[in-house]
Amino acid sequence: MEESKMGDNIYLPQLARVIHIKEEVPGERSIKTFRVEFLNGGGFDHECGQCAMLSVFGRGESMISIASSPLDKEFKQFSIMRAGRVTTAFHDLEVGDVIGIRGPYGNGFPVDDWRGKNLVFIGGGCGLAPIWPVIQTAVKRRDDFKHITVFYGGRTARDIMYRAELEKLRSTAEVCLSVDKAEEGWEGFCGFVPANLMEKAPSSDNAIAITCGPPVMIKFVINNLRNLGFQDDHIYTTIENKMKCALGKCGRCNVGKDYVCVKGPVYSWADLKELPPEY
Amino acid sequence: MERMLAKEQIGDWIRTLRGWEVFGPVLQDGVWSYQPADTVQLDHPNTAQPPKGFAFPQREVFFTFEQIKGEPPRLTPVAPKGGQQVVFGVRPCDARGLPRMDRVFTETFDDVYYRTRRGSLAYVGLACNQPPSPHCFCKSVGGSPVSTEGLDVLMTDLGDRYLVAAVTATGEKLMQAAGDLLTEPTGVDRSEAGRLRLAAITHPQRAVNDVASVPPRLKKGFDSSLWEDLARPCISCGICTFLCPTCHCFDINDETNGSTPLKGSRVRTWDSCQFPDFTMHSSGHNPRETLGSRLRQRVCHKFQYFHENFGMFQCVGCGRCVAGCPVGIDIIAVVNQVAASAGEG
Amino acid sequence: MINPQDLCTRARDLLASGEVRAVVGYRRGSRGMAAEPVVITKPEEAASLVWDPSCVHNLALYLVADRKRLAHLHQTPGKPIAIVAKGCDARALVVLMQENYFKREEVYILGVSCESTGVWDDQKLMQRLGCDSQSLTGGRFDGDDFVVTTATGEQRISAPECMADRCLECRHPFPTMNNVVLGEEKARTLAAPFAALSRFEEATGTQPARWAFWQRQFERCIRCFACRSVCPMCYCEECIVDSITFTVALDTTAAEKANRVRWIQRSATRSENIGYHMTRALHLAGRCIDCGECERVCPVHIPLRLLNNKLEKESREKFGYEPGVSIEIASLVSSFRDDDPNDFIR
Questions:
Q1: What's the pLDDT tens digit per position in A101-138?
Q2: Distance from CA of C209 to the nearest CA of B (A)
Q3: Could you say which of B277, B324, B328 has the minimum Cβ distance to residue C244?
């Protein structure tokens, strides 16, 4: 086969340079945010909630949700928790290093359908990253939406990611932060995210709830949202599974008949509850 | 196009196939496999492995990379070795694997490696006058011992000669190359072939019961305790999946062979849903942690999920996973038991 | 000769009395008359147990699996578990106990003597009968013979014609370590120890020829890992040679995960395959009790038993050590004697 025919190669990443690195959360399960720009005039548009396969050559690939708003065209942003082989390699990167990136993959949140509605975001841990582009987009298109509430919690105050951005957000949205246990100097809610949600009890009237976080948190949040009167098709979440190809072929991220990398990661609870709980 | 070929002339036909690399079933060290061949003798049982690897090899290098720290890496795609390949003696069940792989690799996201290999591949099949395995069940899953799906040519063994029938345009080209070697079938040839085909089709086989009801019943039986019971002897090896004509799961890894500058390749290798950490998240959380959940994945993928996505079963009934399982896990029995129990409730 | 009914009765009584929590044995599967492993927990299930020449599997594997499962669930074993054990299976248990994987009292050994025969080999059956055990409708021991039922009726075969090589060469067809044993201990000489290995070494002759042979064998390995998965001695939670058994606990750090060395790549290439098989063979030296399961299950017929036999022969000739004979003696690699040969250290 000639080189030219390899052009449309779904496995071949584009190259992107790391232009900014910010340490969000320190410690063993640290989170860093990477801002990258494409080399050689490359790039792609994405929707809120979509993911990309990121490479550190020699270490491998990982599926990471795109944490920047589609309205930001000059760069893409990713918040990565140090968890294993590839993510550790990311944490070892310096500004100027070049990574591989292919995508976008998966579906997005149906943000356009939510015009004129109240938006309630509920995030935990590094689960703020996948819903962050929706929050950013909603803020940039502030007039399209009514009341915006953001619930977010970390294990401790140190585990709160996007701290400065969240503070800035208070000017346009209601921000309800929490930590799992009381600690000195913390003025927000003390307790788990689902409890904070029930304490504030946002109205389900004309509202969409978007949640992402650890599986156990999502489970209780969805339960609580339903108790607050949210309908199943007004609750959105994202799921994740081990992925290698992001193309619906490698066979490991499926939940029932759905490959999460193609049909997900965004699901309404109405759809998700019909799938087997293999995630 | 139907023609006759004297058995002793099959080598002569193969020699006319200029520009094609020819493979046929060969017995070496007690193992039947497809090997490059000048001539073929088609008296083989099922080969140990199906011919899946011609289009989807166990190892595929996507690209090589070379990177000096801080500088952009150089990525060089590795194209599959060109050249047309023709495989003789493919069993009809194995050939039906190919259109199923096509669905996975060429729809939605077109896989250039698969498409390239597939595009230069031809299958010359051999009808199964006798079932090659006691666990053949092709008829249960929409196939037959004389099926042409996925084949370019189907040959039928008439004792001292073959009836050679073209299925695709590529098949016709392969036959045209033979020139005078192939002769017009006589009425006797046709009636003999017809008799053998009927015998082949009516030969008793093991069966998946009421296969049309299987997908919804498996869906209903997702939480059945039978999965763990039936999977209890499973040793979590990859035999059932690696020998399967339709299993396509894979892994992608970077293999390095130098650090300054960094040099290596990004490589696809077959993987198996039966391996314990196939779906394990980096956190250690594993959605398919138990033997039962992994057996269910393999069975439901073939008999439910694939059917829901593509309207066809992902099993072709070759029986290799049944015969090859070290501990007797039998997909026919598993499907029948789970479907029956789901049908009761 | 063993009456299979006696086995069922014993198993039923053990479960009914509550002496054991489960019995690992064989039952008839759905593939012809071929037996398959089963774990039963209720007395009424005991009637399904069988004992015939298709009981090829080494069931010690399931005790290892049971132990791992309990450990994962943070449960203690409680009552012993019973296992139907041939001579080779019992030898595997001896090695596992020598290595402190189990305590003797945790296992109830329901021994079955192979007496003057052993289990059969599917490839030999295929050659002799034109079909394998999965096509037979019946098969049983009868003195020195196997009696099989095919589509054309019953046939008597002299057992050594179709017995597995490992059984022909077996020196301990009687499970010496047992709680109860069915069948007699019979002296027999069917083939010399390491007969297949000697034949192979003679046939291949020189070292380069043997290396060429092994390269060809490993070339076709598909790395399904069945050889390792079926081996009771391959009980490591994490196997160093591949990436499919990584153990990740809640407290496994990202650094630990990231720094795992990939000694062998997943690519099923000759070099990687050789690395895998050689490492495995060395880890079995002085531990392999020659159940031959690795070779039996290999879907591409790599004669793995020859590799393991070679190392067993070395350990026997150099150290006078035979694995699986007694739990009282220290294992080969954990013991040292002043007169151990050391001429191989250069």
A1: 999 999 999 999 999 999 999 999 999 999 999 999 99
A2: 15
A3: B277
Query: Domain limits at A36?
Result: 12-105
Chain B residues whose beta carbon lies within 8 Å of the beta carbon of residue C216: 29
CATH number of the domain bearing residue A82: 2.40.30.10
Distance of residue A124 Cα from the nearest chain C Cα, in angstroms: 19
How distant is the Cα of C256 from the closest Cα of chain A, in angstroms? 8
The reply to whether A198 and A84 lie within a common domain is no
Regarding whether A122 and A230 lie in a shared domain, the answer is yes
CB atoms within 10 A of CB B153: 27
CATH number at residue B23: 3.40.640
pLDDT tens, position by position, C50-99: 999 999 999 999 999 999 989 888 898 889 999 999 999 999 999 999 99
DSSP C49: B
Same domain, B216 and B122: no
CATH number at residue A180: 3.40.50.80
Indicate the domain borders of chain C. Answer: 1-190, 192-335
Q: How far is A12 from chain B (nearest CA, A)?
A: 7
Residue B197: inside a domain, yes or no? Answer: yes
Is residue C156 pLDDT above 50, yes or no?
Answer: yes
Q: Do A28 and C253 touch (CB under 8 A)?
A: yes
pLDDT tens-digit profile, chain B (345 residues): 999 999 999 999 999 999 999 999 999 999 999 999 988 989 899 999 999 999 999 999 999 999 987 789 999 999 998 799 999 999 999 999 999 999 999 998 999 999 999 999 999 999 999 999 999 999 999 999 999 999 999 999 999 999 999 999 999 999 999 999 999 999 999 999 999 999 999 999 999 999 999 999 999 999 999 999 999 999 999 999 999 999 999 999 999 998 888 999 999 999 999 999 899 988 888 999 999 999 999 999 999 999 999 999 999 999 999 999 999 999 999 999 999 999 876
Does B58 fall in a domain? no
Name every residue whose Cβ is closer than 8 Å to that of residue A251 and which is 6 or more positions away in sequence: B248, B249, B250, B271, B273, B301
Q: What is the pTM of this model?
A: 0.95
Q: What are the beta bridge partners of residue A81?
A: A31
Q: Which of B338, B342, B325 is nearest to B292 (CA)?
A: B338
Q: How many CA atoms lie within 13 A of A148 on its CB side?
A: 22
In a domain, residue B327? The reply is yes
ipTM of the complex: 0.94
Of B108, B249, B305, the CB nearest to A256: B305
Query: C: neighbours with 3+ CB pairs under 8 Å?
Result: A, B
Total domain count for chain A?
Answer: 2
Instruction: State whether B249 and B178 are in the same domain.
Output: no
d(C-alpha C237, C-alpha C193), whole Å: 33
Q: Using CA atoms, how far apart are residues B63 and A9, in angstroms rounded to an integer?
A: 10
Substitution target from B66, B112, B244 for chain A, most A beta carbons within 10 A: B112
What's the pLDDT tens digit per position in B112-126?
999 999 999 999 999
A85 and A125, same domain (yes or no): no
Give the total number of structural domains in chain B: 2
* Interface contact flag, B237 C297, Cβ < 8 Å: yes
**Dihedral sign from CA coordinates of C234, C240, C246, C249:** positive
Structural domain including B329 reads 211-258+272-344
Would A200 be classed as within a structural domain? yes
Partner residue opposite B262 with nearest CB, options A58, A61, A279: A58
Q: Which residue of B has its CA nearest to C29?
A: B328
What are the C-alpha distances in Å from B62 to residues A53, A263, B65, B77? 15, 25, 10, 6
Measured CA to CA, the distance from residue A6 to residue B116 in angstroms comes to 10
Same domain, A130 and A99: no
* B72 domain-assigned: no
| Rg (chain B; Cα; Å) | 22
Question: Cβ C223–B280 below 8 Å, yes or no?
Answer: no
Residues B173 and B277 in one domain: no
- Same-domain check for residues B47 and B85: yes
Q: How far apart are CA C54 and CA A102, in angstroms?
A: 52
> Quick one: closest CA in A to C260, which residue?
A85
